[in-house]
Structures are given as C-alpha cells and as structure tokens.
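Hello again, I could really use a second opinion on something today. For a while now I've been wondering how a particular protein folds. Please have a think about how the structure follows from the sequence. Here's the protein in full, and shout if anything looks odd to you:

***
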Amino acid sequence: MTGTARTPAAARTATAVRPAGTWRNWAGNVTARPAREVTPASAAELADAVRRAADEGLKVKAVGTGHSFTAAAATDGLLIRPGLLTGIREIDRAAGTVTVEAGTPLKRLNQALARGGLTLTNMGDIMDQTVAGATSTGTHGTGRESASISAQIRALELVTADGSVLTCSATEHPDVFAAARIGLGALGVVTAITFAVEPVFLLTAREEPMGFDRVTADFDQLVAENEHFEFYWFPHTGNCNTKRNNRSAGPAAPPGRVSGWIEDELLSNGVFQAACSLGKAVPATIPAIAKISSRALSARTYTDIPYKVFTSPRRVRFVEMEYALPREAAVDALREVKAMVERSPLRVSFPVEVRTAPADDIALSTASGRDSAYIAAHVYRGTPHRAYFTAVERIMTAHGGRPHWGKLHTRDAAYLAEVYPRFGEFTAVRDRLDPQRLFGNDYLRRVLGE
C-alpha cells in the first residue's frame, strides 16, 4: 500500500530565480552573499539550474534552514533553496519505507508519518531542519542500538555535477551510497531521501536531576539499561539533568498542558533566555545563575509518540561545538572539561550535553566503525566562545574526537583523515562525481582538502 502527499501542482510549475541578498544561518554567525538564488520545483529543474551554473562558472550550494553553525552551505555562487521540493512521494508499507523530497522539514515529515501510524526509529532533539540538511551533516539523537537519522536512509536521489540525477542505495551505486548518506553537500544536491520507518510506538520519558559524580560513575550502566539515554551537565555546578527514553506498552500520558508549558517553554526557553541575557551582560553572575537553573527543572515522567518525546522547542539561540569520542573515553573527557572550567576564568551559561550512538557503516559518520559518545558545548549567541571552544577542542582531539560536521571546530583534512578510516573512500567518490569542485566552498576545502 502506498500513499502520497505532495505540494500542490500550482506551486510546483516553475523554478523561481531571483537576485540574492545576504544569507544568514540560524545562529547568525555565518553570512554569505550568493550571486543568485534559485528555488526549483523538481529534480529536473534543479538539474537544469546546476548545468547552467556550471556553464557560467558559478559554484553551487543548497541550503536548508541554516541550523549548521559552520559555513557548510555558504557560497558566492548559486544558492539553491528547496522550498518547493517538499512533500512525501511514497509510503511503502510492505517495505517499511517513506520517500520524501529533500526540502521537507523534519517536523512535517514526523507529523505526516504519525497520521499514517508510522515513525522514524530515532531522531535528534529539534525538528526544524530539512531532511536533506539534517542528514547531510550527520544530525543525531541518542541511542543504545538505534543510530543517527542518516543511518535510517535506505536510498538517496541527488543531482550530480554534470546535471544527471543519480539514485543510490545498498544495491545501486553502493559506493556512492556509503558516502552520500552524510555527504556534506560535496557530492551533489540531494533531491529525495528514502527512510526506513516502522509502526508508531510509545516512548516513556523519565527526566530526573542527578549529581555529576553519580552520572559519570554509572554512565555505562545507564547507557546499557536504557534504549535512549542522555544528560546535561551545568558548568560551575555538580548538577546534571538526565533523560531516559524507553519503549512503552502505554497508555499514552503526555505532559499536562500547564506543566508541559512550564517545563518546555517557561523554564527551558523563557526563563533560560532571560538568564542567558543577564549572564551575557554580567558574566560574574553566571555561576550563581547556573546553580539556580540547574535545580529549576524537576523530575517528571510522561509517555507519548516518538517525535513528541525525542524533540523539544529550542528558542534560545546559541553556537555549538560537538565532538564524537570512542564511547569508553567519554567520561574521562567530560571530567577533564569540568576540571578545565573550574580552574579557568571562563563563565559558561549553557549546559554541556552528552549523548551516545552505536557504530554505523557510513564513511564520514561521526560514529563510523565505532560505538560513540557525543559531548556538546554551547554558548549563548553573541557571547565570546573562542577560548572555551578551543579548550574543549584540545581535550576532544586528545581522545581521537571527530567533530560534528555542522558544528564549530577548527579541524582540517589532515586531522580528519587520521580519525576517519574511510576518509579516502569518501574523497575518491567526490573526485569521481565532482572533479571540478562545482559544489565546493571554503569549508569543504578545509575539511576535505583540494
């Protein structure tokens, strides 16, 4: 049985081409001035735009909602906006897949799947990104056995540098598939993605404050005992907030409207925004604010469908660095981060997030070939971050860390080739598909080399 939900035909009849203004990412730390913007309504129109750009000597980059903190999507050439490449092409219940166009926001995909009684197995904690933007940079949640969104891809359609439309999967162009599931925009422009899905299920979330020493001492046990475990450590304190998500027989018991608003909007967004603003203006107040805010969120348990448990609103803007480490190195590295913050003059208002993922088989996945743990450092937007991120990065790289492709880091191709055993496999596919670097930019030049 199949089902479709597509953008109305009237909105998809022609490519919109316009002079470009300044493009900014979500955090506001990256800007670009492309020569031209195009909003194609089909893969064929996108392919035509790519061919014209190549003839004119323009570089080509596609952009989603700008949730990457790096300049992965920045260009001074042709900027492709996917606003008309949205909607579900097909739901194949027998195969357990959904094929969705690249510009579809994760929120719309999740809602459409839920209406059809289906769900992704795992996802990250926000759903504002487009499906292509999220997967191209390796967006992930946390999971004992279930991996990133990219690891749930079963097939990809992309427009390559010569303007052809290529479909890849485990059986069709498998070498491209091994690379393109996290392609960084370097191999072509993704136009559609086929994800594995399963019948919708319930998750019970248990959120609970816990001391830093207890979380780190019991980390391996907490990961082993829960399908999805994560925690946040509040710098300048010994306090953490933990979250355990496990499948449940039900019944559904979502957060109450008032209590949910207090936790997710008032405390996690409204009050937190005010606290960050105060800390930015008066950094000396941050340790005291951290002690208060780390105790503000109380224990709670609720049960709902997956996307309503995995994701939450993120209205306080920030910049972020995140590294994937071998899972066995995570606790030592986090303790080193805590010791570094305590002996430094740094004032850090955002919590540090810790998640896990199983090994996968994607060439440039941060979990490629090894069980991984993620340590993410955040700083409120507009707050100086270089000293903090430099110190964190020094600790992460000492443990063989791999930086998240969409989050701030200073690593280059020489370093990345050492920590990714399949790095050369990816660059060989790139050399074949885009020898002239039509899809290149400064960021890709740094992380992938010439």
